[in-house]
Every structure is written in structure tokens, then in C-alpha cells.
User: What shape does this take?
Amino acid sequence: MFIFYTFLIWFGYFLYFYICFYAFPFTKELGWNRGLIAFGISSIAMAIPVQAGIGAWHFVVIAILVGFGVGKVDAGAFAFCVHTIQAIIFTALFGLFGILALPVANKGK
Assistant: This one.
């Protein structure tokens, strides 16, 4: 189950990243394979020891998108929006769900 849930979490992160491609006209034509490449390499960038991956993740996403033919300013806007939405909304949404689910899950203990 641990491996299944781990895969499910990473699949969810990838879908989020890839769906964001459709929010911008300059990335919506890149396709899922380029989205997977950008997601995979940017995930490795999160392992660079800087606070919350800020800087390293952005640099890698911008570099990858520029390599795919996206303009540098557009790639920067994509990286900023995706990271901001993921860090604030996505984390807050699941954090709130976790806070609300804990009493239900621990009711019998």
C-alpha cells in the first residue's frame, strides 16, 4: 500500500503540473511527454538544499521550458504561478482536509 500511495501522490503532482500547461497559451501545445520531462527534472531540483526549493526549482523549470521553445519571461511566469498555486492553495487545501479528517480517523482510539 505504501508504494501504491506513493505512486498515487506523485501521479497527482504530475497531473497538477501538466494541467497547468493548459492555463497558458505558450505551454498548452507541449504535450504530456514534455510535461513529464519538465516535472521529473524539476522534482529532482527540489532536492537541492535551498529553502522550499525556491530558486532551484524555478531555475530548472524555466531552463527546461526555454529548451522547449518557450520564451524566458513566459517560462518565468509559468514557474512562478505553478509554484505559488501549489505551495499556497494545494498545500492549504489538503492541509485543511487533513485537519478535518484527523478527528474522524482517530475517533475510535
